Amino acid sequence: MQPGAITQQAPARAPAGATPDADGIVLGEGPVRVDAYIDFLCPFCRMFEERSGPVLNRLLGGGAISLVYHPLGFLDRLSTTRYSSRASAASGCASDLGRFRQYKDALFANQPPEGGPGLSQEQLIELGRLAGVTDPGFGTCVANGVYLPWTEYVTLRAAERGVSGTPSVFVAGIPVPANGDVIEAAVAEVAVR
User: Fold this and answer.
1) Residue 75 in contact with residue 39, Cβ under 8 Å?
2) Are 19 and 154 in contact (CB under 8 A)?
3) Which of 7, 86, 150, 175 has the fewest CB within 10 Å, making it most exposed?
4) Cis ω for the linkage preceding 167 (within 30 of 0)
5) Is it the case that residue 4 has pLDDT exceeding 60?
């Protein structure tokens, strides 16, 4: 952290599955930590998921990594309704029900174009159903923006870390290109240390 930087106070409520410092959602329990900073409005993040997702899923399935997603509100300025933050907050609601990964995939598969309103709250709720979320509390959580303060915190923490664009990936704290093969090689290198 930069000298004189202000560390943000953790929000009063973080989603289930959040990191101990509440700035991301953890998938898996492997020994090598991979951090992925994403924005659900970012077309490069969608491409990252499409191209690198199979590698990340294989590493997760093999128990090699703990994958921490940091869903950011970076691109709110490219939406008329703060879509990035609303989608991130909705992903927190899905995480509470153990469906973060499925909901993340549904958000990217249904990504709206930059510059417009993005998906409505009703569409975000409907995507939950497509991602296998059946609990009616999900809709209430999304409609009430329960995790908007959490999204703001995650976004501010990313900026403190020096993340200035999405997707940004770190393996064991070291920045690497957002490329599945490079991530896999970096994970292998850390694992033999």
Assistant:
1) yes
2) no
3) 7
4) yes
5) no
> What single string gives the DSSP state of each residue in 64-120?
-EEEEEEE--GGGGGSTT-HHHHHHHHHHHHHHTT-HHHHHHHHHHTPPPTTS--S-
Which pTM value belongs to this model?
0.94
> Cα(145)–Cα(92) distance, rounded to whole angstroms?
10
- CATH number of the domain to which 183 belongs: 3.40.30.10
Does the structure show a pLDDT above 60 at 6?
A: no
14 occurs within a structural domain: no
The predicted model gives 32-59 an average pLDDT of 98
Instruction: Provide the 3-class DSSP secondary structure of residue 4.
Output: coil
Q: Which residues pair with 174 in a beta bridge?
A: 171
Q: Locate tokens 């990936």: which residue? A: 169
- The span from the CA of 111 to the CA of 58, in Å, is 24
Number of independent structural domains in the chain? 1
Contact 147, 122 (CB under 8 A): no
pLDDT the model gives residue 81: 96
